[in-house]
From TrEMBL:
<keyword id="KW-0479">Metal-binding</keyword>
<dbReference type="Pfam" id="PF00925">
    <property type="entry name" value="GTP_cyclohydro2"/>
</dbReference>
<comment type="pathway">
    <text>Cofactor biosynthesis; riboflavin biosynthesis; 5-amino-6-(D-ribitylamino)uracil from GTP: step 1/4.</text>
</comment>
<dbReference type="GO" id="GO:0005525">
    <property type="term" value="F:GTP binding"/>
</dbReference>
<dbReference type="GO" id="GO:0005829">
    <property type="term" value="C:cytosol"/>
</dbReference>
<keyword id="KW-0342">GTP-binding</keyword>
<keyword id="KW-0378">Hydrolase</keyword>
<comment type="function">
    <text>Catalyzes the conversion of GTP to 2,5-diamino-6-ribosylamino-4(3H)-pyrimidinone 5'-phosphate (DARP), formate and pyrophosphate.</text>
</comment>
<dbReference type="GO" id="GO:0046872">
    <property type="term" value="F:metal ion binding"/>
</dbReference>
<dbReference type="InterPro" id="IPR036144">
    <property type="entry name" value="RibA-like_sf"/>
</dbReference>
<dbReference type="InterPro" id="IPR000926">
    <property type="entry name" value="RibA"/>
</dbReference>
<keyword id="KW-0547">Nucleotide-binding</keyword>
<keyword id="KW-0862">Zinc</keyword>
<protein>
    <recommendedName>
        <fullName>GTP cyclohydrolase II</fullName>
        <ecNumber>3.5.4.25</ecNumber>
    </recommendedName>
</protein>
<keyword id="KW-0686">Riboflavin biosynthesis</keyword>
<comment type="similarity">
    <text>In the N-terminal section; belongs to the DHBP synthase family.</text>
</comment>
<dbReference type="InterPro" id="IPR032677">
    <property type="entry name" value="GTP_cyclohydro_II"/>
</dbReference>
Amino acid sequence: MSEIRARVNLKVGHNSDIDAEILSFTCFDKDNEHVAMVFKQADLKQDVPLVRVHSECLTGDVFHSSRCDCGEQLDESIEKMAEEGGVILYMRQEGRGIGLYNKIDAYVLQSQGLNTYQANNHLGFDDDQRSFEHAIAMLNALDIKQLKLLTNNPRKAKALADHVDVKEVVNTRVHLKSDNAEYLAAKQQHGKHNIKLD
Ligand SMILES: Nc1nc2c(ncn2[C@@H]2O[C@H](COP(=O)(O)OP(=O)(O)OP(=O)(O)O)[C@@H](O)[C@H]2O)c(=O)[nH]1
Ligand SMILES: [Zn+2]
């Protein structure tokens, strides 16, 4: 069982003007230092908060890489929660759980023609190595029993719905760029993500 370890106020977003609180948790080791970002407009007293379970993507979240849509989804989540409140669980599950160096190896394979899932498989990994048990432990620590989930990934929604009451699944926008079109198409067709591509 995980509990809240520390919590502190800060302001976030491109202009550092959105009120939030960052929380750390007990029971996670150094490789799993997940955090929750609570947007103050709703705070934890909101009955059914909007929750985004966001998997770390250094290339997308920090460097706004052209290869994926993670940075845009994170920005969208922050903007949305600045308006209506909510909670981002920022999960240190880089590369769908395979880690950054393996993800870069997977990018090399994608440059040679494999799609994102085939590249994982070629490296000896499953399509998606993530488990959501840490996210569920964090929701329990936060005493969030029901939520609206911001995701396009039905597998993620299902994994959480087995443990908490997912009242609604809210899709993110489609963040299509010339370099991530094939990646989004693979997520839609193979990963069954709810992404509408024309
Ligand atoms: N292995 C691998 N991981 C990737 C690749 N591109 C992005 N990622 C990782 O994928 C994770 C995000 O997963 P996605 O499949 O984009 O989206 P999701 O979290 O399942 O679904 P959403 O909630 O809709 O964002 C992050 O940890 C990224 O680092 C890739 O080509 N290969
Ligand atoms: Zn990414």
